[in-house]
């Protein structure tokens, strides 16, 4: 299960704190050293951990906490609050254009779960009374178009394709025309991924962005890849100025690093989480619920 190691270590630390009654400054610092190690082992970005620990420590050795009747409880509460802040405080809704169609561009490395997420998002938005159109703009990966058509078919959502001989910028452009003519108010563009970030791919994505002026550019990253997910997020953000992140495979045994680092490193919020292979396995990302899950 996700976060298992982190949750377990934090609980051990908190148990020790609770057993102490009154806390000394040293008790707090010792506990913070353990929290720091637990976060690093969970693959949270080093600088994020350092800043987090500094803020929590400063608050926790404040007078209010040390003199309170339940100091351990107060310290745990501070960790919880700061963890929520780290992940963006509140949920980040997607930007719906006042002038339909709303254009959502999904980007990310191959295998991150982009195509699956396109269909999940379409299903989710339709439940919210929208009329999505899926757009197959990955013309390189064999069977990517077919995969999207199959997923679209499963949930009865139309898939726009011009095959794999038309360039993705033109596909994206044509899809907007199609959406307008066919009363589709959300266009979800599934773009190509590569195994690694490469210049050619970025140029193509920049080209699509320029052509369709998306309301959202959501980067799909695999939570299981930890620090790598954060590096990928940073690179895509530098090139494309993404509007948000979707973490996939949070149902797997991810150590948690990506969920806790991405917002702090890129400044961009996590908007959704993929929690399984089924098309209904999508969650809105709530920082407070995620923090509670991590703290156990
Ligand atoms: P793409 O190359 O980025 O388009 O990735 P795909 O959408 O083809 O997904 C790659 C694999 O990850 C597929 O086998 C998906 O079923 C799987 N997958 C995608 N999202 C999730 C998720 O949230 N949880 C789990 N367990 N598997 C996922």
Keywords, separated by commas or semicolons:
single chain, 296 residues, alpha/beta, eight-stranded mixed sheet, 52% helix, 14% strand, binds guanosine-5'-diphosphate
What's the layout of helices and strands?
Elements lengths: L3 H15 L6 H17 L4 H15 L2 H4 L4 H16 L15 E6 L6 H14 L4 E6 L6 H12 L3 E2 L7 H14 L4 E6 L7 H14 L3 E7 L4 H14 L3 E5 L8 H10 L3 E5 L7 E3 L2 H9 L1
Helix pairs in contact: 1-2, 2-3, 3-5, 5-12, 6-7, 8-9, 10-11
The structure holds guanosine-5'-diphosphate.
Quick overview:
GO terms for molecular function: 7S RNA binding; GTP binding; GTPase activity. By secondary structure, the protein is of the alpha/beta class.
């Amino acid at each position: 299960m996700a976060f298992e190691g982190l949750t377990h270590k934090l609980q051990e630390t908190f148990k020790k704190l609770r057993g102490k009654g009154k806390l000394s400054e040293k008790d707090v610092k010792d506990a913070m050293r353990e929290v720091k190690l637990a976060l690093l082992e969970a693959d949270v970005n080093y600088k994020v951990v350092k800043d987090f620990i500094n803020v929590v420590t400063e608050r926790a050795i404040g007078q209010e906490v040390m003199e309170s009747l339940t100091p351990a409880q107060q310290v745990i509460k501070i960790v919880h609050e700061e963890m929520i802040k780290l992940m963006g405080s509140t949920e980040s809704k997607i930007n719906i254009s006042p002038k339909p169609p709303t254009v959502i561009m999904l980007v990310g490395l191959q295998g991150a779960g982009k195509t699956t997420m396109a269909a999940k998002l379409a299903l989710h938005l339709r439940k919210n009374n929208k009329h999505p159109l899926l757009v197959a703009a990955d013309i390189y990966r064999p069977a990517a178009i077919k995969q999207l058509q199959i997923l679209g078919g499963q949930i009865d959502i139309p898939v726009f394709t011009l095959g794999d001989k038309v360039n993705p910028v033109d596909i994206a452009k044509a899809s907007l025309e199609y959406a307008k003519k066919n009363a589709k108010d959300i266009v979800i563009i599934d773009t190509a991924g590569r195994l690694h970030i490469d210049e050619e791919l970025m140029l193509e994505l920049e080209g699509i962005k320029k052509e369709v002026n998306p309301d959202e550019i959501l980067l799909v990253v695999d939570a299981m890849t930890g620090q790598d997910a954060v590096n990928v997020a940073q690179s895509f953000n530098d090139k494309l100025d993404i509007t948000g992140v979707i973490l996939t495979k949070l149902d797997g045994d991810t150590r948690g690093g990506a969920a806790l680092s991405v917002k702090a490193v890129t400044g961009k919020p996590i908007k959704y989480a993929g929690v399984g292979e089924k098309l209904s396995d999508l969650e809105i990302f709530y920082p407070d619920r995620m923090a509670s899950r991590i703290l156990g």
